[in-house]
Automatic annotation (TrEMBL):
Keywords: ATP-binding, Magnesium, Metal-binding, mRNA processing, Nucleotide-binding, Nucleotidyltransferase, Nucleus, Transferase. Residues 546-563 have a biased composition (Polar residues). One of its GO terms (molecular function) is metal ion binding. One of its GO terms (cellular component) is nucleus. Residues 366-424, 430-499 form the Poly(A) polymerase RNA-binding domain. Residues 24-213 form the Poly(A) polymerase nucleotidyltransferase domain. Belongs to the poly(A) polymerase family. This is polynucleotide adenylyltransferase. It comes from Prunus armeniaca.
Amino acid sequence: MAGSEGPNASSPTQQLPKKYDTTIFLSGPTQSDLQRNAELEKFLIDSGLYESTDEAEKRVEVLGRIDRIVKDWVKQLTSQRGYTDQMVEDANAVIFTFGSYCLGVHGPGADIDTLCVGPSYVNREEDFFIILHDMLAEMEEVTELQPVPDAHVPVMKFKLRGISIDLLYASVSLLVVPEDLDISHESVLFDVDEQTVRSLNGCRVADQILKLVPNVEHFRTTLRCLKFWAKRRGVYSNVTGFLGGVNWAILVARICQLYPNAIPSMLVSRFFRVYTQWRWPNPVTLCSIEENELGFPTWDPRKNPRDRYHHMPIITPAYPCMNSSYNVSISTLRVMTEQFHHGNRICEEIELNKTQWSALFEPYLFFETYKNYLQVDIVAADSDDLLAWKGWVESRFRQLTLKIERDTNGMLQCHPYPKEYVDTSKPCPHCAFFMGLQRKEGVRGQEGQQFDIRGTVDEFRQEINMYMFWKPGMDIYVCHVRRKQLPPFVFPDGYKRPRPLRHASQQDERNDEDAVGSGSGSAERHIKRKIDPKTEDVRPIKRVKQTTISPPRTESVSPSKNVGRSVGTPDISFSNGNRLECRATGDADKNSDVRLPVRQLESEKDSVGDMRVVEDVMHESITINECTSMLVSEFPRVRNEVKPSQEGCAVKPSEQLEKPLSWNELVVPCAVSFSESKETLA
């Protein structure tokens, strides 16, 4: 088995101007920095981010087993296709690792990203995804086998002896693959397709990152820390529109280049300091973007118009240089920018000895941040079907964000949350994802302005139902829920939602509805209330009784069998100025008042100064209208009908109302209308 080795961690930082280009600070750590660094490393160890020796040895054994499997697979194919005995003997495939395992920042239970490089006569479509898949399916040690052939980078996911594996395949232009194949050399890209290039570049990028950082061990500790932070704050997910492992690795590597003599505690603090001031969409690069005679397209907004619409370009260092963060949308960039500012504030307090490292890693209170959410429920007939169905829906979840941005001209901001939740009370396998929704900050609503995203959701569901491996029982439900209506399975054990305040006098005792009255008082909520106390008045919310409209069904319906249904009137309307009127559903007392918070980003005092942190501007600024036009061209509207709910597994239908709904109620995607009531929401 071949691997990817990084440079020696103690390699000296020589030839900095040539190798690392611009630097900001060359001085080493102070005594205070060393003390904070020791505290940070202790915190990471106490948090269980390092695997045990036994688990590390098990990973090596599993990788060896995969290597033997793919070698036997290639020899078997070579023999079946009539090659000579010598060719059969020489037939070979090699396993490489990339991702967190290759970079040395994986933790307990993490998956291993692997790449199988095979000869030219072994293809991906049939040999890898059918023949090798069937071989793996027959092995008792292999579980949760899930092929994803239509992914941007085709992958086979499975567990081998309990270790999660993501296996890619690349067929190179060689009849015999040598055991010591060097895939970092560009000759390996000769006469291969773009999917193969993307598969190979995972390993090639990891190798380059390790070569381009001044100190590998400092880079690893910092990256391990930032990945943990990103997961705690809900911004670690490439598929959802945030950043994945390679994105965070490149961002951290750039900070290591800017501060080549800094230790991890300093690098973490500088990470937030730099990226709170980064002027996106200026790209983050570790080296110059170079062309090659092989002719593969590289990221260049001057030549490629589509590259101009990337919101947060993070460029891979290996040829062909690509934007690794093309999934980022306007909404997810906004969320990450907020989190960078939050992290910067905490790090400033840590440097002033006002708080501990644990404050930086407090979990993000997603369900206390927004008033309105979309709930996406996924069900299937059994756990194996749910695994495949969930993977497909999750891979398309980002499209829902883009479609909402497109159909509302960016006025409706989305926050997809990458964590999945399970309702164990349902009679069939289930999981759910959530998306926070709010009106764009700083924009006043016009009288009569309406947002109706039911058609947007219908389009999303119709595209989801085009899944080529769809089976009876696979279904998806999308509905709108307010914060007070969130299902109990999204809250940790022991967490109790606050009781609604019954009187206006009690309402005055809180800042706004976003400060949920659990009394938890996290550091983040305290900072936001202290810095940004402004709120907007909202007229009392009125409620009516719930009624259902979705007809039950006794068996699952194929996506090809569409069932018609009624469509309600537009659902969201804005009143004059900032005063919003809302009608809701359910029982409540009178005279309750809700305030709509104004969530703003605070301007940061700290500045990098005159140092050139941001690379040269390579393309023009992008307006919301330009982005919307691009999205419209990328995602044409498809108005198809949606199948009804599956009996036994159906999610609770949305309310039936009869009049346009104001902002707080948002839209109910399941074809409903809204009406007034004289009752008042508590």
